[in-house]
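Sorry to interrupt, but I need a hand with the structure work. Can you supply me with one protein entry, sequence and fold together? No commentary is needed, just the two lines. Leave the record below and I will have a look.
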Amino acid sequence: MPVAHPAADPDLAARINAFDLAALVYDDGIAIDRLMVDFAHTLTQAGRRVGGIAQLPPGPATEPGQVDLIDLMSGEIRPLKQRLGPGAASCTLDGGALAAASTGIRRAVAARVDLVVISKFSKQEIAGGGFRAEFAAAVEAGLPVLTSVKRSQIGGWLAFTGGLGTLLDGRMDILADWWAETRRRRA
């Protein structure tokens, strides 16, 4: 059964508090991954239940091109790309890792966490794949959702959301203000 999304379901769109759906807008070179991981950690330390997935920022031991995702509920870290070796020309995206990450998002939705984090809305989702169904499931469940979207892909995000949601500048103070207002509205 396909999952409805706001742009395709006017009844769902009427039930959504657009403020609960937020995307951090970023450009190349902006440390959006670090911001999202730090924000999730701050909320968890404050006693909030945060679930979903976040992309870990590269560390000193990170290999070039390596992308790791962390399941924010279990703490499990998974590489998102296959290591095919030097000179490999095929796609390095690991379908198994993507499926495992989607399970982590769905588990967070089922647990009705305080905030669902989905690291990015990108080309995969715009093309109809990636975590598109998981975004829709979290929104349908009425949970606050935080993601990031590259400035060049805002049009795809707005098409998916039907224009609903809040676009945020990628700064901790703005993110903290969004969360405080979200909590106030949900109280």
In short: The mean pLDDT is 83. The first helix runs from residue 10 to 15.
